[in-house]
Write a structure and sequence with these properties.
heterodimer, A: 109 residues, mainly alpha, 3 helices, B: 517 residues, two-stranded parallel ribbon, globular, disordered C terminus
């Protein structure tokens, strides 16, 4: 099961899935860099994690079960991250009354 | 020599015993906190120098137990393709991580007594983060590595915002969280690409696939290695990815800053050292150039920015970024000497930075501010603590009779042996630059007049929980390790020498049956 095959081993559908995941990842990364609202930034990060999941599942077509297993771990981790992240965002909203990254500027040089 | 073949579940429990101990203790600490009587919760903050809280004692005990468990695994070996590493590299890494944890918790009592910080969740989260770090140190599989890094990171996001009534702490937490989660996404996608290129998440098998040339799709491999480097670069705060570091370090409470600067950085570096210099050694062509530039920039930029910092905590934050650059020289060297040098440096740096941050926090509280001006004339008022701070700063700068100097020499030698002359020159020059901002503190402390009424402005502070003993002890240890480094160096080199080469078979001489310690 472990013979490495690269993209060619995936077949057409697998390749489409990998490219979809790459597009998702880039959209998410651009969103993180462009958006200023913390909630939107956070959603873009979730999009990037999902892109990773899609890629893992796509590669699992060629390489066996490990990718699927990892996806479950990633989903659990992403859920924990969402819980903590939203709590942090609530905490800072209480101080500033906004969730705009540009407005958090107590700390700068 | 104990051999674990991971044929039974007991072997997994035994091999992960330090992390198991910490995780269970974290639950215990949380439960203690949840069921504590409402009146008891200020016990830690109420009386400086008074009795330690239960959470503190359980935490210290848990970390000491984990350390014993880790040491008792020192003679164990496993098959090279095992899920969990059993080698000297892991042993030394766990020693550094648990030592940093012990030191941070011991030093945090002073801060807690001064600010009334509540201890329960702090200790529980710290234990959970430490669990994640030990998992990172032991992981030989990308899934395990990801889970360990996330367990560590998520706990530290919360810790950074622990003083939640302080807007700076919340801001530090948000910035650290956004950047950390962004980095995790890169890490995950890098893992996915690496999995696509090599067909396995097991690092030892990936190493074989790469070195045998079977890792098809140069594009996938290069992309995976690059993304992994970006993700871990954020975690170690290497320069293009360091922008969260000064903010997060400045805003977080002092014990948390110390923990982030020592434990988190050490754990991330352990992962970088293990993955890049051992398992991805076959893909050296893909990452060597990137690591070279990361190391060079990480040595140059923060040292220049630190020159103009007035806030001592922020200055130490930039200094900690610069130290990541020195450590990256050990990665770029990609040799046994580089690995053992980086581990030694991590140990020396962890002790020094944790003690220096705690000391700055303590002294700044007595002066009502932690900017450079507030430290004028301090050397004559608090001779012992100031002397300790001088030793620690000299060690960070890398002056001769200190552990920092030995560590830098070690890294320099490894870099030169690997032919990285450019990096060696940058290391020396940027260290010279860094002398300025470290020694400026010393100058202010000893050669400038104390401002009017500075010592009277705040109540005289007694360090709580043996604070002064610990700090002076750290300074002495740093000096001792600088004066007599021989045994330490030999120990680290011996431990990492039989480390992690995946291609070798395990030593099977003197077989004993593996069992739980």
């Amino acid at each position: 099961m472990n013979e490495a095959g690269g993209l060619a081993a995936l077949g057409l559908h697998g390749q489409i899935a990998v490219f979809t995941s790459a597009v998702l990842f880039v959209i998410g990364a651009i969103g993180v860099l462009m958006r200023r609202n913390v909630i939107m930034v956070f959603m873009c990060i979730e999009l990037m994690l999902t892109a990773g999941n899609v890629a893992l599942v796509a590669f699992s077509r060629a390489h066996g079960i490990e990718g699927h297993i990892m996806v479950f771990f990633v989903m659990a981790v992403a859920a924990a991250e969402a819980a903590v992240g939203l709590a942090i965002i609530v905490a800072i909203f209480r101080h500033y009354g906004v969730v705009d990254l540009d407005r958090f500027r107590l700390l700068r040089w | 020599m104990r051999v674990m073949d991971f044929g039974s579940r007991a072997d997994y429990w035994a091999a992960m015993m330090p992390a198991v101990v910490l995780a269970l203790s974290a639950v215990v600490v949380l439960m203690i906190e949840a069921f504590a009587r409402p009146g008891a919760e200020t016990a830690e903050g109420a009386e400086p120098g008074g009795r330690a809280s239960v959470a503190f004692l359980v935490t210290m005990y848990a970390m000491a137990t984990a350390l014993v468990a880790s040491v008792s695994l020192g003679d164990a070996t496993g098959p090279p393709d095992a899920l969990i590493a059993l080698d000297g590299f892991r042993g030394v890494a766990e020693l550094v991580l648990l030592g940093a944890g012990l030191l941070v918790v011991a030093l945090s009592r002073d801060y807690a007594a001064r600010t009334g910080m509540r201890g329960g969740e702090f200790h529980a989260l710290l234990l959970l983060a430490l669990t994640g770090m030990l998992v990172v140190a032991a992981a030989r599989d990308l899934i395990l590595l990801f889970v360990g890094i996330e367990l560590m990171s998520i706990s530290v996001y919360v810790l950074a915002g622990y003083a939640r009534r302080n807007p700076r702490s919340s801001e530090a937490s948000v910035k650290y969280f956004i950047m950390g989660a962004f980095a995790s996404a890169f890490l995950l996608y890098g893992i996915a690409l690496l999995y696509g290129a090599t067909g396995t998440t097991r690092l030892s098998e990936a190493a074989l696939a790469i070195s045998s040339g079977a890792a098809a799709g140069d594009l996938l491999l290069a992309g995976g290695v690059g993304m992994l480097l970006i993700g871990l670069g954020f975690k170690v705060a290497a320069v293009p990815f360091h922008m969260w570091t000064p903010d997060a370090y400045e805003g977080a409470p002092f014990p948390v800053t110390a923990f982030m600067a020592t434990g988190v950085k050490a754990a991330a570096f352990v992962a970088v050292l293990r993955i890049f210099t051992v398992d991805l050694a076959g893909a050296h062509a893909q990452w060597a150039g990137a690591v070279w530039w990361l190391a060079a920039l990480t040595m140059i930029v923060p040292n220049l920015v630190a020159l103009q910092q007035q806030d001592l905590k922020r200055m130490l934050a930039y200094s900690s970024v610069a130290h990541a650059g020195y450590l990256l020289v050990g990665v770029a060297a990609m040799s046994d000497a580089g690995r053992s040098g980086a581990l030694f440096y991590l140990g020396a740096y962890a002790v020094t930075t944790a003690a220096a941050l705690a000391l700055v926090s303590h002294l700044a509280a007595g002066r009502g501010g932690r900017s450079l001006r507030d430290f004028r004339g301090l050397g004559w008022e608090k001779p012992w603590l100031s002397a300790a701070l001088v030793v620690l700063l000299l060690s960070l700068a890398g002056f001769p009779p200190t552990a920092g100097f030995v560590g830098k020499l070690f890294l320099l030698r490894a870099g030169l042996a690997a032919g990285e002359f450019g990096l060696a020159v940058i290391l020396v020059l940027s260290s010279l630059v860094s002398y300025y901002y470290y020694l400026r503190v010393v100058w202010k402390m000893y050669f400038e007049e104390s401002p009017e009424g500075a010592s009277g402005s705040a109540p005289a502070l007694r360090g709580a929980g043996g604070f002064r003993w610990i700090v002076v002890g750290c300074a002495l240890a740093v000096l001792a390790a600088g004066l007599f480094p021989g045994r330490l160096i030999e120990g680290v080199e011996a431990a990492t020498a039989r480390a992690p080469v995946a291609a070798d078979g395990p030593e099977v001489a003197g077989v004993e049956v593996g069992e739980a310690p």
